[in-house]
């Protein structure tokens, strides 16, 4: 019985092997399916060389063109006035910013002026007798001498003899001593050199002010300047008076300025040149961050494309007979998103948008994008 079962199993194995081999042979003879070739659709543009205006983009913060840092040259108590010495306070030209108590120094000035007056009065009898020809001008000077006003200039000496006489009596030294004290007295009142606004206040009314102490900052809010650093290659292209368009970072506001100054030296560390842009607008504030677009020059026979279309080896993709190819180009100027190129013949078809995984010889389907047409939405 066992032998019969083994024989049946053997026959079944032989039949199964035969059928399996026959199936393998049949599958081997079937043709392999051909994979469909994928053709990518690309956006293209036709090259038309023209004059491209190179616009240099730079940014910086605004600083008031006219600003004054206020320092004390004398010591005393800060006297209160009609306006509080606080940031944001406006002052007109010639209006007192800070008044320091000068009563002690004022007394010294009056004492010196009185001594000068007495010294001149003491020589008048001698002038009448020995210098009758100059007596009248000194008498007129003495009559016009007012202790409550600024000391007037001494009469002009008309002879060497008169000069020796006046100098010998100490009149000249007394006069200049008084003028020195009067000059120092003027430093107790700090006035606005122009109409503007206080941006920093470091002292308050009633506080003791010391000589050399910083008191605050005062600016003219009508005119601002922005300092920008540009590549040294544009040193010869920047022109004073050139119009500049400025925008805020959100691109919601635009302002018009001009190049007011260009530094005559190049920074040795960064190899950049500094230009200053002047701008006027009531909306501007000191410290605002703006972006400037400076018209540097105009490049002839060039085109402008996206930077991501330029390959690392200074080549760009072109399309010939539905195949991608590369062509050598000459980059002229790079901005954040654009590049200006030369040496591309007119009529050349180039990519308008970058294609991931693109390579020379790649089969593509071109769709032209006409960038010169302006479509209006009705």
From TrEMBL:
CusB-like beta-barrel domain boundaries: 227-297
Domain of life, per lineage: Bacteria
Record-annotated membrane-spanning stretches: none
Pfam family, one: BSH_RND
Gene3D superfamilies linked to this entry: 2.40.30.170, 2.40.50.100, Helix hairpin bin
Every Multidrug resistance protein MdtA-like barrel-sandwich hybrid domain range: 66-215
Annotated GO CC locations: efflux pump complex
GO molecular function: efflux transmembrane transporter activity
Name assigned to this protein: Multidrug efflux pump subunit AcrA (Membrane-fusion protein)
